[in-house]
Structures are given as C-alpha cells and as structure tokens.
Specification:
heterodimer; A: two-stranded antiparallel sheet; globular; B: mainly alpha; 3 domains; two-stranded antiparallel sheet; 20 helices; 2 strands
Chain lengths: ~500, ~575
C-alpha cells in the first residue's frame, strides 16, 4: 500500500497508458472491453485515494524518476487537480460499462478494440494534463489525449464523422501549436518549463512584449481546445458524429480538462502577474464567455438533431465556466470550478441517454423522437431530468453552479452579468422544452408505438450519472468546499 | 419515524397511488391519513428536526400544541373525505387529494418560513386538480383563476420571506407582526388564502366548481391552513379583529340571495373564518384556544354540510335551491346528517359549534370589545339563517320538486355518519377537544347564561325566517333591504368596470400588438443568425475556421500589447 500511496500520482497516468497497447495486441473487441473496464475501475479507485490524500495532506509534489524540479519533470496535484482527475476517471468508469452495447451497435466489429485502446489513451492524456506540473509535459499529454480523440471521432458510423475528425484535427493542432509557440516564447525569456519555477521567474520579465504575446497565444490555444466561443466551431460536428459513448465521454471530460489547464496557466504560471488585470484580457474573455452563453443556447434552440443541440448547449456551458474564471473573485471562480464537475455529470448523463435513444430507434433527430415518452419512458425521463440540470432548476447540480456564479457576479458588483446568467438560463428552458414537447406531447409515428426500452447495461450507467447529478445538487457540501478552497488558493497566488 | 413530518406520509404515499390496482387503492388511501394521525399522535411536543441547505437551517419538523391540533383535524378531515370519495375511481383526484392534504399538514408542522413556502405552493398546485377534475370548460377557467391567485399568494409570501430574512437574518416561523414591509407582505399572503374581505372572491368562485368530492376536500384545508399561519405569526394583531368582524358579517347578505347551495356554503365558510380571525386578533389564550377549537369543529361540520350537498348533487345533478326541495322523502339519512351539520354551524347547544364559537364570543366580551361582540352576535344569527335553515330547508323540504332519487351511496352515508357523530360528540363532551388545545382550558361552555342567550338568538332567528316565509317576502323581496350596496355591486361597479375594462383592453391590445411585432422581428432576426444553416451554426470549411482562430488571436494580441 505504501508503494501505491507514494507513487499514486504517476500511477494515475501510467495505469491507463500502459494498459492501452494490450488492446492492440489482443485485437479482440470483447476482451479489450473487459480489460479497459477493469483498468478504468482501478483508475477510479486510485483517483478516490488520491483525492483523500490531497484533502488530508495537502498538495502532492512528485518528482518523476527522482529528478527534482525545475530540471526534472514534476507532478503537482492540488485540490482542483485531484477533482479533475476524479471527474475524468469517474466518468470513464461509468462510460466504459455503457460503451460495450453502444459501441457494438455503432462501430464495425473489427474496429472495436481500437475504440477501447483510444479511450484508454485519451484517459491517460487527460489525467496527465491534470496532474503535471511541467508546462511542456502538459503539451505532451494534451497531444496524447487529442490524437486519441481524433481517432475516436473518426470511428463514428456516419461518413461525416471523418470530415468532422479532420477539421478537429486541423484546429486542434493549431491550438496545440499556439500553446507551444506561447510556451516557447516564455522559455526563451525565462529558461524554465516548470510551472512553479515559471511563476517565480515571470514577474521579472512581465513587461516584455514577448510575454504579452505568449499569453495571447496560450489563451487562444487553449480557448480552441476548450471550445470558447467563437473558437468552438470544431465541436458541434465532432460531438454529433462521434459514437454515442465517445461523445458522452468527451463532452463530460475533454473540455473540462482544457478549462482546468487554462486555470492552471493563468492562475499558477502567470499567477503573480495577474494577467487578466495587467494585460487587460479580462473584458475580452468575459465578452466571449457571455457571447458563448447566448450564441450557444440560441443556436441550440434551432437544432433539429438533439445530439447537435446538446453540443451547442455545451458551448454555452463552457461560457459559464470561463465567465466564472474571468470574474475572478472566489465565489465566481468556485462557480466555474463546480460547473466543470457538475456539467460533466449532467452532459455525460444526457449524451448517454441519447445513446440509449440511438440504440433503440437508430436516430437522434428531433422528429424521430416523437412520442418517446411513451416508447422509452425511462430514457425520456432521464433526458428530462438532465434537461432540468441544464436549466438550473433547484435541487439539480445546474442550480448550484449558477448560484455560485450569480453570487460571484453580484459580489464583484457586476449585476448586469448576473442578470445575463439568468437570462441565458431562460434560453435553456426553451431548447430543453422543445425536446420535452416532442417526446411527451407528440404521438409516435405509425408503426413504432411499441414500448421498447434500451438494455439495462445502457440505462444503469446513465441513471448512476443522473443520480449523481441530483445527489450533488441536493448536497453540495463536498463540491462546494473543494471548489471554494481551491478558488481561494488559486486567487491567493495572484495577489 | 420519529423525525418524519406527518405531511410527507400523505405526499409521498400519494405518489405510489397510480401503481396500485383500483381495489387496493381505496384501502390504501384510507390507510394513509390513519398512519398520518398516528404519526402526529406519537410525535412529542417540542420535537424539532433541522436540515442544512444552502447555508440556511431549515426546520422541517416542529411540533407544539398549536400545530398538533391542526395535525389531528387535518388527518381526520383527510380520512373522512377519502371515505366520502370511496366510490370515485378518478385517478387525478385520488393522487391530488392526498398530496393536497399532506402539503397542508406538512405546512402546519413547518418550523421555518422557507419550508412553509414550499408546502404553501404545493397546496396551491395540488388542489387545483380537484377543480379541474370536474372536466368542464367552466371548471378549467375557474381553476386557472384559482391557481393564479393561490400561486400569487405564494409569490407574495416568498417576497415577504426574503425581505424578512434580509432584515432579521432568521427564517424561523414565529411571531411576525405587521408594520414592516416584510411582515405586511407575509400578512397579505396569508390573508389571500384566508379569504380576507376583498381578497375572498377566489373561494366562492372555485369551491362550488370542484367535483362532488373535491369540494369536501377543498373546504377543509386551504383556509384553515391560513388561519393556522395567522395564529402563529400574527396573534394579537389588532387589525385582524376588524378584518375578522367584517368577514363574519358581509358574506351573510350574499349567502341569503345566492341560489346555488354549495355557493351559499362557500359564503358561510367565509363567515366562519371571520370568527377564527377575530379570535387571532384578540390574541389572548382564551381566544386562541377558541380559534383552534373553532377551526377543529368547523372543519367537521363544514365538511358534513358540503358532503350532504355533494350527495344531493351526486344523486340529482343539481345544487340549485330553486330546483330542489322535498328530498327528505327519498334521502332521509342525508337529510338527517345535513340537519346535524346545520345545527352545529348554527351553534345549537349540544352540537360542536356551540362549544367552540362561544369561546371566541366570551373572549371578545372578556376583552370588553362590545361592538365586535355585537357584530359576532349578528353574524351568528345570520349563520343560523342561511346555513342552519336555508340549506336544509330548500334542499330537503320547501315545495316538493318532485325529484325521486336513491339515497346516497353507503360510503357517503358512512362518512357523513362519522362526521355527524364527531359533531355531536364534541358538543356533548367538549373536554375531548379542550384537552388537545394549545393552552390550558378553564372554560365552561354550558352555563345557564350561554345556553339561554344562544337559544334565544336561534329561536328569534327562526321566528324571523318563518315570518318572512309566511308573508312571502323571502327571498326575492329581501333584496330591497340592501338595495344601495347591492346597486353599487351589481350596477355601478359593472358599468364603471366595463368602461375601464374597455379602455384597458384597448391600450392593452395596442401594447401587446406592438410588443408582439417587436418580438416577432427579434425572433426572426435571431433565427436568421442562429437558425439552421445560418452563418453561426453552419458547418464551416477548415479554412474559415482557421480564419476565425486567427482573428481571435489578433484580438488578443492587440488587447495584450496595448495593455
């Protein structure tokens, strides 16, 4: 046990990374699935241990291979990092059991093993991004997860999945490149890549044009990965055409980890400079976040493909997270962080429910979902419940995040922003209601009135995630405390 | 079990109703209030359960003498109305009735204002289904009006609670009192549900439109919940005495000229509430005891009267005084029970109304409020007139309408029999009721003075009715006695309101058309920009995407470099 406790941070990355090639070696769908499920469960267990460790003993600093920073690569895990690791591994552990039937329906048999292999790689990359304390290592893990994601999207059944994946590949690479360019400039000025080290070195050169430009590149680079409006253009197609299980996993984790990385960079690496204030980026970021909240929701209202509708709603939800970060006081920041966690729960559950729909009726078009309330009562109920969370109805997680955000906006004296948060929630009512109306108030097409529910292996994981979305909406002490103390630590660094 | 709010037994229990087969459902529905009653009985005084939510401490369960009385009677009323509705297979009512009753019970045991608000709204939302269950166009519209007012009361309550919290930092539901904005808002919210004069119209509007069984349920909870809330928050508030006195007096005039007998009962319900409100306003231990006991006995005899009228409606299909009469031949049992209810509401000695109403009258006298006492006395006579005589007389006696129907179903008769028994039992053995009152009772209802005063009152009232009937000046000519006020209500007001309405409708239409066209333009614009295939949502070429990325990078470069 002491070995695990000592090396837990590197194990978090190593377990899925080393496990992935096994799938390629056996080249067997079912075996790969069993293996991947086992690995994600182990990861999930480890992440709980990690969380407890961080909560009791504080931030973990781990020197990779015994090489101390700033020369060696250092893993640095604080409360937000541990929370993100927990999100990724928990979602993975829930999606994996779900993936089997869903992937069997949506991907040709000979490619199943590839899907599981890529999922494991993607998990490794995402967890790596969350635990690393080295800015270049962050790029490496970003690429690991991104490359795996491109493949996963391309596995989609629809032929448009290929072009969606290609577009994402191009844009994702542009984003990653921007980040490396920014990082290169910083390296040029400071000679270091270690995040804590950089934080100490940067203030000395903060007034150079190079560092200014570096920040712009970094923000835009990660803005792309986290789908900040209007850099979100890759996202809707990628989410729409990817296999259901993949969409559920990506929507719940990928953008959140990118948000986390951006928080890390702005508040730790650039922390002592307070770049939002000094470089005057705050208004720009805030305007884009609010524009995203509205544009994403408005477009979602007009979508006829529900998967696409939810993808656009993700763009809006990312807007809330970035808004929380850009307001920059503790409650708003905590709101942004909680929303990372909460949005993972609700969007994951919603996309999984849509996977159930696709499994049974072979479509996620709005018109094909007519009368779904009668045909698939459990799935339809799950979609409604998830929709409540998106709107932010009390007793759901969505309410908690918005509560913190509004509180933060009011505390910062930005009451128009608070008003805009409420207004954009109203838009969510509209797009959720459209789906509800079609499901419950239209009668099903002739010939498909029979009641056919998705199999239990799809429904149970969906409901577990949905249950969590209500559990943490009713009792938000855990998420609230972690996010609040994390926000205070992060902001403490910028003062 | 020891920490469960008794209201939740019915609310949660109701959710399971649709899962049960019809035969089991009836027994189950009867069992719920019994379990609830036992739960109320086992909870010790002073029990308090708190729960933390969003930084506020909610007291989801608080038991004391005041809430206990209401807990008992609400469960009894729920049981009786379930029994009365035994024959009804309408799922809508079978679910909404226990939720409604449970919400009212839950509200009575709520220790803080937020919990109270939640139950308060739940009573509004669940009860409207009892009106809609009539499934007529008229009932639907009435239901909407009812819902609007009830939810409105909830919204005002919420606003008051928020202000109250901001001012005092506490959401504890204790003495509130008027004089502050928060207190006044809460007062008005309670007042709406309590059917204060001018805020009362929803009651006479909605109750007679509900189903046969729905009215029985409705009559028991909403208004008495409001009485409880007033007693808890505004005991001893002077203005309540005058509000209450007005409430006792003014419905009498309407009740006398009204033809629909269920509507007559709705007016008399309003009048009875007045007595309770006066009791709260006086605010002494005796008067609060009077309010509690009057609420208790009132729920019983009012339910009994509504049940008997419901049975008549169920059998004959009408409740109009002009179309009924002579039913005692075909519905002798119902007639008997109705008379028991009428005797109780008129406060005949040995019936329940006597032992409770006289407490409030005595409290008013003990406080030397002779004018109020006089109004109450007049109102008592009026009650006897319209509820005690008019209801049974026109329904069961008067001129024979020739209707020959079957006696009410056995379950209705049984429900009425139990209720009637309780009415007489309390009247004969008031100690049973006095023992559960919030304050110790040293009041003796059966003194010579009390009995004789009451009997005189009743006899002369009966004499007046008889004389009026004999000389055939009842009821049409009676209108002439209050022509002036009547004219205001029926002629001047409609005329003024009609003119005002026309003006308002016109401006309203103009504003709405304008707003609609602006809104239409706006949605069209949004659709052009955000709809399918619009620039913002269409699938882009990779090159276009890259261009966007570059321009955003450019934006950030400019921002950071200028700074």
């Amino acid at each position: 046990m002491s070995f695990i406790a000592e090396h837990i941070s590197v194990l978090m990355v190593m377990v899925p990374l080393m496990a992935a090639p096994f799938c390629v070696i056996v080249r067997h769908g079912a075996v790969s699935w069993g293996w991947a499920t086992l690995v994600t469960l182990v990861s999930f267990g480890l992440s709980i241990v990690l969380m407890q460790h961080v909560l009791t003993n504080g931030t973990i600093v781990y020197d990779l291979g015994g090489w101390e920073g700033p020369w060696g690569i250092v893993y640095h895990i604080d409360e937000v990092g541990a929370l993100v690791v927990l999100i990724v591994s928990a979602i993975a552990a829930i999606v994996m059991p779900y993936a089997k039937e869903s992937i069997e329906r949506e991907i040709p048999k000979e490619r199943h093993y590839l899907a599981y292999c890529m999922m494991l790689l993607c998990i490794a990359g995402l967890i790596g991004m969350a635990v690393t304390g080295d800015a270049f290592n962050l790029f490496v893990f970003l690429e690991v997860s991104s490359l795996a994601t491109y493949v996963l999207i391309a596995l989609g059944n629809d032929r448009r999945a290929l072009t969606a994946a290609l577009r994402y590949l191009i844009l994702g690479t542009v984003g990653a490149t921007f980040y490396v360019i920014g990082l290169g400039m910083i390296y040029m000025m400071t000679g270091s890549l270690n995040m804590t080290d950089l934080a100490g070195l940067l203030p000395a050169v903060q007034n150079t044009g190079t560092v200014h430009v570096a920040l712009a590149f970094i923000v835009v680079g990660f803005g792309l990965k986290l789908a900040l409006f209007p850099l979100h253009v890759w996202l809707p197609n990628a989410y729409t055409f990817a296999p259901s299980a993949v969409t559920a996993f990506l929507a719940a984790t990928a953008t959140k980890v990118a948000v986390y990385a951006l928080i890390r960079l702005i508040f730790t690496v650039f922390g002592d400079i307070d770049p939002l204030e000094t470089y005057g980026v705050r208004p720009a970021v805030m305007v884009l976040a609010i524009a995203g909240m509205f544009a994403g929701s408005l477009v979602a209202i007009y979508q006829s493909n529900v998967k696409r509708l939810l993808a656009y709603s993700s763009v809006a939800q990312v807007g809330y997270m970035i808004l929380g970060i850009s307001i920059g006081n503790a409650p708003a920041m905590a709101g942004g962080i909680i929303h990372m966690f909460n949005h993972a729960l609700m969007k994951g559950a919603l996309f999984m429910a849509l996977g159930c729909v696709f499994y049974v009726i072979g479509s996620v078009k709005l018109e094909d979902m007519a009368g779904l309330g009668k045909r698939m009562p459990l799935t339809a109920a799950a979609i409604v419940a998830g929709g409540f969370s998106l709107i932010g109805v009390p007793l759901t997680v969505g309410f908690i995040s918005k509560f913190y955000l509004v509180e933060g906006a009011l505390a910062a004296g930005m009451w128009p922003v608070a008003l805009l948060i409420m207004l954009s929630s109203l838009l969510a009512v509209i797009y959720v209601w459209r789906v509800v109306e079609v499901m419950y108030f239209r009668s099903p097409a002739i010939g498909c009135e029979n009641r056919t529910e998705a199999p239990m292996s799809l429904l149970v994981p969906t409901y577990i995630l949905l249950g969590a979305a209500f559990w943490f909406g009713i009792d938000a002490t855990f998420t609230g405390d972690v996010a609040m103390s994390a926000a205070q630590t992060l902001l403490g660094g910028s003062k | 079990m020891s920490s469960l709010n008794p209201g939740l037994i019915l609310v949660i229990g109701a959710v399971l109703v649709p899962l049960l087969p019809q035969t089991l459902r009836r027994w189950y529905l009867l069992a719920l209030p019994i379990i609830g009653f036992i739960q109320v009985h086992t909870l010790a005084d002073g029990t308090s359960v708190t729960m933390d939510m969003l930084g506020m401490t909610l007291e989801v369960l608080r038991v004391d003498g005041l809430s206990r009385v209401w807990g008992y009677i609400f469960n009894i009323a729920a049981f009786l109305s379930m029994l009365f509705a035994w024959h009804d297979k309408d799922l809508m009512q079978q679910v909404s009735a226990p939720i409604y009753a449970g919400a009212a019970i839950g509200a009575v045991f709520a220790g803080d204002l937020v919990t109270l608000f939640v139950y308060w709204e739940l009573t509004a939302i669940s009860s409207v289904f009892l009106i809609w269950a009539s499934r007529t166009e008229r009932a639907y519209k009435t239901g909407m009006r009812y819902l609007l007012i009830q939810v409105g009361s909830g919204v005002i309550l919420l606003a008051g609670v928020l202000l109250w919290y901001a001012k005092t930092g506490s959401i504890d539901f204790g003495k509130i009192g008027i004089g502050t904005l928060a207190g006044n808002l809460i007062f008005i919210a309670f007042g709406i549900k309590c059917a204060f004069p001018l805020l009362h119209n929803w009651l006479q509007d909605a109750y007679p439109e509900a189903t046969v069984t729905g009215t029985v349920v409705l009559s028991a909870f909403t208004t008495k919940l409001a009485v409880y809330a007033l007693a808890r928050g505004f005991a001893g508030t002077e203005v309540l005495i005058y509000v209450g006195a007005t409430m006792t007096a003014f419905p009498i005039f309407y009740a006398v000229i009204e033809n629909d007998l269920r509507r007559v009962l709705a007016y008399s319900l309003n009048n009875q509430l007045g007595f309770m409100v006066v009791g709260i306003g006086i605010g002494t231990e005796l008067s609060l005891n009077g309010t509690a006991s009057h609420a208790f006995s009132h729920i019983l005899y009012k339910a009994l009267l509504f049940m008997s009228m419901g049975a008549v409606l169920y059998r004959t299909g009408t409740c109009k005084g002009s179309e009924l009469g002579g039913l005692y031949k075909s519905m002798p049992w119902t007639t008997g029970f109705c008379i028991v209810g009428a005797a109780s509401i008129s406060a005949f000695p040995l019936f329940s109304g006597f032992v409770s109403k006289s407490m409030i009258m005595t409290a008013a006298a003990a406080d030397h409020r002779w004018f109020v006492w006089g109004v109450l006395l007049f109102a008592s006579a009026g009650v006897f007139h319209h509820s005690g005589i008019k209801i049974p007389y026109f329904a069961f006696f008067a001129h024979d309408s020739g209707k020959r129907v079957k006696e009410a179903p056995w379950n209705m008769l049984l429900a009425m029999a139990i209720t009637a028994f309780l009415c007489i039992f309390i009247g004969v053995y008031p100690k049973a009721l006095y023992d559960i009152l919030p304050f110790p009772v040293d009041y003796v209802p059966y003194t010579t003075a009390h009995v004789i005063t009451q009997l005189q009152l009743l006899m002369f009232s009966a004499l007046a009715f008889t004389v009026l009937m004999l000389y055939k000046i009842y009821p049409p000519e009676l209108k002439s006695t209050n022509l002036d006020t009547d004219w205001i209500y029926r002629k001047l007001l409609p005329c003024v309101l009609g003119w005002l309405g026309k003006v308002i409708r016109k401006t309203d239409r103009m504003i709405r058309e304008e707003a609609l066209s602006v809104l239409g333009d706006l949605t069209a614009m949004i659709e052009r920009q955000h709809g399918d295939g619009a620039p913002i949502s269409k699938t882009m070429q990779a090159g276009t995407m890259a261009l966007i990325v570059l321009s955003i990078l450019f934006l950030f470069l400019i921002v950071t470099l200028i700074a």
